[in-house]
């Protein structure tokens, strides 16, 4: 099968949905002629024109808020906020409006909107362009949170997100946009709340998201040589979360590591750990280990940033604690 | 302005006043839970504006939104049931006083976050334009909302998109307890329209005919593709910020000020004119008032007798089932 990058997979999904559903349009900062800060919308303005691929003023409240309104008015907006770091400025729109409109008005209206955001630390972008706090959104009832790690999952989940009647936060990790993988040319969808066992193993369950999923696979391959068998699970959507797939794996392995680039404190790794502790403690043969970012902002200086970003080294250390 | 329309205006304002007075009585007697914000004294704004709207036009409003919902065609009984937290209410009892919606008559929602509806309205207008309908959005909010970031971003984006939205500031002089002079340095908030490249005007918000005429200009302009406008209606709230506020807010305002505004009561003013001109008689007005009282008794009974939502409704409508 052909191999394309995660960025190309997303572009393909957007193109398909724009072609097949007149209600779909995109707006965000620099998504037009520039093609988006990470190139995901490259070329779309040429094909679909400035009425459907819209460069916006630098107004995150308006970008998200008017996206919500467009969804209420019958459209299917795909809205881009360049970095997750910019979402606190429009958190009211996300938390109080986008997430709650369906419930608060007794189910009368819906907000079929996708909010695409870029996450992750990479390339010395310092404290305000490197964060991964999507657990904020997982915390809020009413939002779907998708976190694909591979090009295949990215295309399938974006297709599902655009077709969904629920508001979706679609998280794209910087370190994965250029990763290539097999992606069918035809249209397909991936259901929300379905984790995937990316690699089977028997000794340790390693739940890993986005860039850390790739690090997890790499470490697992290496350790196979030392006869340590690691099962790598990618939740793919953090809300809804596929607890069953994780629980089944823990039942088999008795050991759990959760690797997620969010801050460990109150983050996604903590939530998954708590779920397993609450419901599966009798199956555990050791402590649950969390891998993530430390309780600090992301520093600029290259060696400090390296120390901040979790990766293969941190996963190896976690595994060592369990074997 | 023909007489029939002026009588309709009087009826519309009396209908709102009767509702607000009745629910205040019920609230103080402990029948209505939670908190609510009354618009007594401000009735000319919703009535004057909504008389320019078609049934399929959209309306968005604020926490002080009962009058807007009524003026757009909301019915006493479903509003009362919502205030009681009953399943038969407009928002199935999930919303209460601050969260009314009735999509069937274009009421997309009243918003508990000050300024929250402003950028959303821009997006609803975008959808109307995108879908090539000639529907218009009326977006009501208070003077306090004019100080939010959502106001600036929302109006600017609405202007950039050239969407059919009529923004209406219902300036009642206070943001809870903070008077206008502590909020900005402007005499008229409508001058801000210049900054966004849209027309703006300030009018006497207690003169329902003046409100109607300004709104008509705005709605016609918006409907014919002219883009958004900003209308400031100067008015006054007779009661405290919320129902039951001690001494109707005399802590931060004077009795003289309150009395002077009550002299300018929009209902009394139009009533005097119509009586003077022989368009209506006292008997006509009494009959109207009795009609509203009767309808309110029925609405109260309906709300009383309606069931509360079932406990199983708690988790209903958080998400829409995925196909």
Secondary structure layout:
The complex is a heterodimer of chains A (323) and B (323).
Chain A lengths: L2 E3 H15 L3 E5 L15 H5 L4 E3 L4 H13 L3 E6 L9 H8 L2 H4 L9 E6 L15 H4 L5 E3 L4 H13 L4 E6 L6 E3 L13 E4 L4 E5 L1 H15 L5 E5 L2 E3 L3 H11 L2 E8 L4 H13 L8 E5 L8 H7 L3 H11 L1
Helix pairs in contact in A: 1-7, 3-4, 9-10
Chain B lengths: L2 H26 L15 H7 L7 E4 L4 H6 L4 H8 L23 E4 L6 H14 L6 E6 L6 H13 L3 E7 L2 E2 L2 E2 H4 L9 H4 L3 E5 L3 H16 L5 E6 L20 H9 L2 H11 L5 H24 L18
Parallel strand pairs in B: 1-2, 1-3, 3-4, 4-8, 7-8
Antiparallel strand pairs in B: 5-6
Helix pairs in contact in B: 1-11, 1-12, 2-9, 4-12, 5-6
Strand content bin of chain A: 15-25%
The coarse silhouette of chain B is globular
CATH class of the largest domain in chain A: Alpha Beta
Helix content of chain A: 25-40%
Number of β-strand runs of chain B: 8
Q: Stretches of chain B where pLDDT falls below 50 for ≥5 residues?
A: none
CATH topology of chain B: Rossmann fold
Second CATH tier, the architecture of chain B: 3-Layer(aba) Sandwich
**What would you report as the Rg of chain A, rounded to the nearest angstrom?**
19 Å
Order of helices and strands of chain B: HHEHHEHEHEEEHHEHEHHH
SSE order of chain A, one letter for each helix or strand = EHEHEHEHHEHEHEEEEHEEHEHEHH
What share of residues of chain B is helical?
40-55%
Q: Which regions of chain A are unreliable across 5 or more consecutive residues at pLDDT < 50?
A: none
- Give a quick account of the main beta sheet of chain A: strands, pairing sense, barrel closure: 7 strands, mixed
CATH topology term of the largest domain in chain A: Rossmann fold
State the oligomer: heterodimer
* Count of alpha and pi helical runs of chain A: 12
Name the CATH architecture of the largest domain in chain A. 3-Layer(aba) Sandwich
The overall pLDDT of chain B, averaged over residues, is: 97
Mean pLDDT of chain A: 98
Q: Kindly name the structural category of chain B.
A: alpha/beta
């Amino acid at each position: 099968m052909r191999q394309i990058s995660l960025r190309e997979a997303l572009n393909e999904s957007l193109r398909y949905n724009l072609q097949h559903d007149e209600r779909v349009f995109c707006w965000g900062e620099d998504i037009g002629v520039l093609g988006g800060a990470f190139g995901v919308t490259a070329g779309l303005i040429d094909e679909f024109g400035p009425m459907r691929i819209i460069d916006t003023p630098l107004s995150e409240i308006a970008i998200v808020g008017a996206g919500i309104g467009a969804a209420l008015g019958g459209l299917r907006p795909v809205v881009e906020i360049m970095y997750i770091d910019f979402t606190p400025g429009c958190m009211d729109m996300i938390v109080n409006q986008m997430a709650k409109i369906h419930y608060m008005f007794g189910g009368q209206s819906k907000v079929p909107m996708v909010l695409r955001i870029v996450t992750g630390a990479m390339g010395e972008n310092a404290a305000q362009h490197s964060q991964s706090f999507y657990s904020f959104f997982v915390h809020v009832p009413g939002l779907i949170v998708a976190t694909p790690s591979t090009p295949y999952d990215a295309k399938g989940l974006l297709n599902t997100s655009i077709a969904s009647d629920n508001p979706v936060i679609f998280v794209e990790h910087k370190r994965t946009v250029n990763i290539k993988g097999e992606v069918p040319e035809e249209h397909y969808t991936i259901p929300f709340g379905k984790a995937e066992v990316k690699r089977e193993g028997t000794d340790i369950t390693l739940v890993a998201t986005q860039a850390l999923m790739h690090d997890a696979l790499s470490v697992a391959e290496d350790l196979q040589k030392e006869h340590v068998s690691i099962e790598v699970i990618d939740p793919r959507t953090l809300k809804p979360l596929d607890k069953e797939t994780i629980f089944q794996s823990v039942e088999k392995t008795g050991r759990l590591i959760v690797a997620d680039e969010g801050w460990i404190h109150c983050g996604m790794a903590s939530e998954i750990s708590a779920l397993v502790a609450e419901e599966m403690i009798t199956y555990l043969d050791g402590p649950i280990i969390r891998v993530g970012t430390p309780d600090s902002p992301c520093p600029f200086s290259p060696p400090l940033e390296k120390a901040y970003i979790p990766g293969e080294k941190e996963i190896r250390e976690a595994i060592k604690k369990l074997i | 302005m023909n007489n029939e329309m002026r009588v309709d205006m009087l009826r519309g304002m009396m209908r709102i006043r009767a509702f607000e007075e009745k629910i205040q009585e019920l609230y103080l007697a402990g029948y209505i839970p939670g908190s609510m914000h009354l618009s007594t004294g401000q009735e000319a704004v919703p009535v004057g504006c909504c008389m320019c709207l078609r049934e399929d036009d959209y309306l968005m409003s604020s926490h002080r939104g009962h009058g807007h919902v009524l003026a757009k065609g909301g019915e006493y009984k479903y509003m009362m049931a919502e205030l009681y937290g009953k399943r038969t209410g407009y928002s199935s009892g999930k919303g209460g006083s601050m969260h009314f919606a009735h999509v069937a008559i274009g009421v997309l929602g009243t918003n508990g976050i000050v300024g929250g509806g402003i950028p959303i309205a821009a997006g609803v207008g975008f959808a109307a334009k995108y879908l090539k309908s000639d529907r218009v959005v009326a977006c009501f909010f208070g003077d306090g909302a004019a100080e939010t970031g959502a106001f600036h971003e929302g109006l600017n984006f609405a202007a950039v998109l050239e969407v059919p939205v009529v923004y209406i500031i219902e300036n009642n002089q206070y943001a809870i307890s903070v008077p206008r002079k502590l909020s900005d340095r402007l005499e008229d908030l409508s001058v801000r329209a210049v900054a966004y490249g849209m027309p703006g005007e300030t009018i006497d918000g207690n003169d329902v005919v003046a409100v109607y005429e300004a709104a008509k200009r705005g709605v016609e302009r918006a409907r014919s593709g002219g883009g958004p406008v900003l209308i400031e209606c100067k008015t006054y709230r007779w009661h405290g910020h919320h129902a039951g506020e001690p001494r109707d807010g005399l802590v931060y305002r004077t009795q003289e000020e309150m009395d002077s505004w009550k002299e300018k009561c929009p209902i009394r003013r139009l009533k005097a004119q119509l009586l003077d001109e022989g368009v209506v008689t006292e008997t006509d007005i009494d009959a109207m008032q009795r009609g509203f009282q009767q309808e309110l008794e029925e609405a109260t009974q309906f709300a009383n007798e309606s069931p509360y939502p079932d406990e199983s409704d708690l988790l209903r409508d958080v998400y829409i089932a995925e196909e």
